[in-house]
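Lab meeting notes turned into a lecture example. A postdoc, R.K., suggested we walk through two folding results consecutively so the class can see how the record format repeats. The first protein's sequence and structure tokens come next.
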Amino acid sequence: VDLETAKQELEEFIPHVRTMSDASVRKMAGRDLLRFKQFKKQGIAVKFGRFSQKENDQVRKNVEEFLSITAIDSAEKLLFTSRYPEEKESINRLKVEHGFCEKLSEGIPRPWRLIYYRARKMFDPHNYKGRYTEEEKEKLKKYHALHGNDWKKISEMMSRSNLSVAMKYSEIKSAVNYGPWSKEETQKLIHAVEEVFRKRMETEDANSHSLSKKSHRDLLIDREKLYQKLPWTEIEAKVGTRYWRQCKQKWTTILTNRMTKGQHLYMGIKGLQAKINLIKRLYEMKAEDPDEVNWEELSNTIGDVPRTYVRAKFYKLKVTSVPFWQKKTFSEIVDYLFEEKLPELEEKL
């Protein structure tokens, strides 16, 4: 299909497709469009965000099956072929012959690119290698001075994953303040987020051939967009004194305070009632995985708060109330909270 037709057809599944580059749209049309249509026939929506345990298991299964079909030695060779220059040609040939793209994405209603990135993160032996030593941090600074943002090259030199070295450099590249946020820092954060939204709106206007005067438009944002995925490394650079994760946490706090008008919804009697309501609603949902939960809907259980706030409160509840929670499935954790913790909270109330 031609580019414009591809965009029109993909828009049904990827609402922001017109903000993507033409090259990305062409790849998505080739790798994803047919799959998306097949999932639609089955009544399955295209997903974004965090991968569920079920999806992780499917990625693992797809990779292992492809290895058994092709007799490629390891997942690292399959997903990080450039690390093996002598075998690169033969591995790439096997990938083409046996439909690597189709096999990797089998049974997963997500864009292929996201599935590929997830597989690389799961199977990279250089990932999850613990805290960086001071020596490693100094090496990272030195390699960045030599190679800039060539994270692929730096990751090979550091024996760490691309994502790991990029995020760690983002953290250490400037003096980060770990104390309370000053008024000036908070204002910088709010302005940085506002700038991101303005840029997005201008792109949307340009793509819809809007003739309105953008410079005179009020910045009206759907509530949900306020805590959707934002370019936090870009926002971090604009704030200047805070690490990206701190910016994300502070933004959630600002939204929570504004949406609740500063009320402490999770303290005292209100807090007890919020925990009780949260446990009951989660139990009623019968979800097998946290990514099957509609956290937006659950936010009304506690009050008018961002879904990230609700997830954080659930995390705190399971950590403080459920013994050996790391070894339990999501549904087992919810069952325990309902059967053991709920009666205790109701008695307190």
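The second example is placed directly after the first for contrast:
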Amino acid sequence: TWKWVVGPMFLYLCERLVRFWRSQQKVVITKVVIHPFKTIELQMMKKGFKMEVGQYIFVKCPAVSKLEWHPFTLTSAPEEDYFSIHVRIVGDWTEGLFNACGCDKQEFQDAWKLPKIAVDGPFGTASEDVFSYETVMLVGAGIGVTPFASVLKSVWYKYCHDATNLKLKKIYFYWLCRDTHAFEWFADLLQSLEAQMQEKNNAEFLSYNIYLTGWDESQATHFAVHHEEEKDVITGLKQKTLYGRPNWENEFKTIASQHPGSRIGVFLCGPEGLADTLNKQSISNSEADPRGVHFIFNKENF
């Protein structure tokens, strides 16, 4: 028995030593951005840090807790000279980080007053395979949109640099959110992508659908009054926000009919219930013929 136990234990200890050494490396917070709906963005730099789209890191802030590590998806692109995370303030630890970064104060904060941060990672996820397909479906629920911020930023950089070498030809992006405030921090990125694709005369490259799954009567009246305006009243995008939830069966059938004989990557960051639905649709809408359309499902749950 000991022969079978010693090998894995040795490998585990080596991994812990590497992770401990990596977590001790100096991390510099270059910018803290306060977004609407109690969401903050931390932009950081670390010597030798290399990432791919959709990866995540573990973060520790000793000023808040000396032992707690929390996972956060990277929202920056590999092409950028920094790495960033978006943190939504929903608990004691995130509230402590919010205050430690001086976000509760009105005056400008000096960089030397920012807390020390330890970072372990990055670690890989299914989203890294997004550039292996010609056609992809990206589905984010609420704050689960964060890995796709990294993906869409990287697509933007690659498209600006050399679109001819980009295997990815079509993106279908779906974002499901309960509250209108959550749209605000992500809408700027979509607006940039929308404008960039129009300048390149390839507006069809990115198709996105934003679904608002919760609203009250006063909001519904406001949406109805401004429905005929050129840009959406919530996001400022030309694509209007949809209300309710997607009919996934219709969405899959429509995409399958537009891309016959293709391997389509389906990427989700969202709850387990939505993962089950998309997995079943991926299976039922894939053809038995190897030359037919096939949906390849990849998920990250929270």
